[in-house]
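G., the chain you wanted modeled:
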Amino acid sequence: LAVTACLATCAQGLVSLHASPGRAQSRLRMACLADGDPHGQGRREALQTGLSGASAAWAALGGGAAGGLLAARPARALGTIPETAGLTRVAAQAVLRVTDTDAVVAFFTKGLFMSVLRQTKSADGTLTTTIGFGSDELAVPKDFVAGISSFKDYGAHFTLQLVEPPEAEKPQEGYEFGPSFAYLAMGVPFYRISKLMEAGGEIVSAYGFTVVNAPGGLPCQVVLGDELRDPFMFAAYRVKDLKASEQFYGDTLGMKKCEYPRARPALVSSFEPPQPPKSSYLSFSDDTFGVLLLPKSSGTWPKGLKPADIRPVSERGREAWGGLRIVDGAGALATPGNRAVASLIEEGEPDGNGIEFVDIQTFEAEIS
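Predicted structure as tokens:
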């Protein structure tokens, strides 16, 4: 188990070309940065193809139009970083409720080389810690040099927000993951299995790629690869009704079906699992965090688990996975009296996985 896994340097990863069109567009954006043109003004037409899908999804919702499901004031750009500036929404964070922040932070920082970005403690004693593989600021850092700097120094990284309540409010039996949550997928340029174990990880399997439970029970799938701008790839959910889940994430939230993300260049490899059959991958773009929807027919469910078992955690307040935080630049969710949106939030995600909408101004204030 004490196997050391190493790949090429981050600088090499910056100039490599992805096999998929979506990943290649990300590299084109990097070329814009290298040319001193961070917003790609000279290559706008080339980038437009990659942004049209998100625009179409928003148009399908009636975005900005009277009577549309999420009708609101004109959208505001999600920062100035090319990967998000053309989007109206992005999955920026996930909330993870924990009883021991130090143990979880040690696993991710010592085992997977993440960094602690922020930590605050509220008046009631709730400790909130944000960790990630790089800055979550939706802008290109001034000292970033394309082709030289590491992607770790770039912006728009997906992050985990660890929330630990005061001792008196912690569930006596700890938090639990509902049957819908399958795993959190990551593709990292290097890691050591022995370090994951030393940092408190429970190795489930380690043939080709690693399946490991973090302290607190978070299931993680870790692939060795440097083909990704951000190592966080997606959250995998078991869904009882694939069509209903696709409709929620696609038609309701504005995601689109995207090419399955890969951390390695080879399309077939024992070191990276292929997309499960009959599953569906959706995201707001090819280069941002998404969701992998796994129906029973995908063959990935634990033995004995049935569609009827997919439901929220029985005891409210004990959910370990708090769900995705979606940053919204369209302003719909901040519109007073928007009953359609209020109903959308109340009905929630079909399989009980949390969704929290954050206005872009609020998000920027949080990370500043």
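Residues 70 and 332 are 6 Å apart (CA to CA).

Shout if anything looks off.
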